[in-house]
Amino acid sequence: MRRILSVSSLGVELSNWIDKRYGTPGVDLPDFSEAADLPPASTAEQLRSIWGLHQKPVKNLLPLLERKGIRVYSLPAPDREIDSFTFSHEGRPFIFLNLSKTAERMRFDLAHELGHIILHKETQKNRSRQVEQEAHDFASSFLMPADGLYAQIIGKLRLEDVFTLKNYWQVSALAMVERLYSLEFISEWVRRRWIIELTQRGYRTAEPDGIHPETSKFFTDVFRLAREDGWTSRKLADDLNESEEDLDSLVFGLAISSVRGGGQGGPARHGHLTVVK
Q: Residue 80, by phi and psi: left (phi above 0), alpha (psi -120 to 50) or beta?
C-alpha cells in the first residue's frame, strides 16, 4: 500500500509538471450522473455512440483515453501483483496499468478502469464485488458491443470462430467466450468446454498470436517537446526529486533521453500538445 501511494503521488507530480509547461488535453468525459440507473452495458453503448465508435472495434484505446484527458501510467515492476487501479485528483482521472499482462488483457483492464471513472465518479463505495462486476460489464460491452456481435454471428459457433472474433475485437479469447455466453450465443456447457480447451492451449496465462501492446502517444509527444526544451531524464527526475528509474517505469519506458530529435527551435505544437509560454 505504501508503494502504491508513492507511485500515485509521483503520477500526480509528473502530471502537474507537464500541465505547467505544456498545453495538454482537458478532461472531456460525458456526465452520466442523471442516468445512474442505467445498466453498465447501456452506459457503455451510449459512450461508444457519443465518441463516434459505432459498432467497430476500439482501436488504440490507450491514446483515445489520453485524448479525453485521462492520464494513464504503467505500474513499476514490484507493484505488478496489482492488475490496475484508478483515482481522480483535482478533477483529472488517473489510471495505473500492469504491463506484465497480455496486450488484450491490458486493453480490458483499461476499459474496466474507464468503467469505474464513468460509473462510479459520484460514489464513495468501496470496491465491492458488485462495483467490480459493474465495471466488468461496462468493459465487456464497451470492447465487444452486442449489436456488433449480433451483426457478425450467423449460425452455430465453433471454437475456431472465437479466434476470428477475438482478433477482430482485439480482446482475449477467454473474454470473448464469456461475452458470447453472456449474450446467449453459447450454452453453459459449451462455455465450460471451450474454457477448458483454451486453458489447455495456454490462453489462461498468455495470448498466442496476440496483438502488440498499445503505447502512450501522450508521453511520446510530451517528451519530444521536453527534449526540444533541453530536458533530459536526469534533469526532470531531479526537478521532481525522484529517481530516473522510478520515472521511467511510470511512463511505459519512454525515457526523455531516448527520444530522437531535439535541438533548438522546432515546431511549438505536436498533436494536441502546445508549449506554454
A: alpha
Share of the chain residues as helix, strand and coil, in percent rounded to the nearest 5 = 55, 10, 40
Q: Using CA atoms, how far apart are residues 258 and 15, in angstroms rounded to an integer?
A: 20
Cα dist from 104 to 79, 143, 160, 209, whole Å = 20, 11, 18, 11
CA distance 31 to 189: 40
Can you read off the three cell numbers belonging to residue 258?
531516448
C-alpha cell at position 218? 501522450
Query: In whole angstroms, what is the distance from residue 237 CA to residue 202 CA?
Result: 40
Helix residue spans in 120-216 (DSSP H): 129-143, 146-152, 159-169, 173-182, 188-200
Which tens digit of pLDDT belongs to each residue from 19-35?
Answer: 999 988 899 999 998 87
pLDDT tens-digit series, residues 52-61: 998 999 999 9
Q: How many residues does the chain have?
A: 277
Q: How far apart are CA 58 and CA 219, in angstroms?
A: 20
| Cβ pair 68, 25 in contact under 8 A | yes
Rounded Cα gap, residues 100 and 85, in angstroms? 15
Query: CB of 183 within 8 A of CB of 204?
Result: no
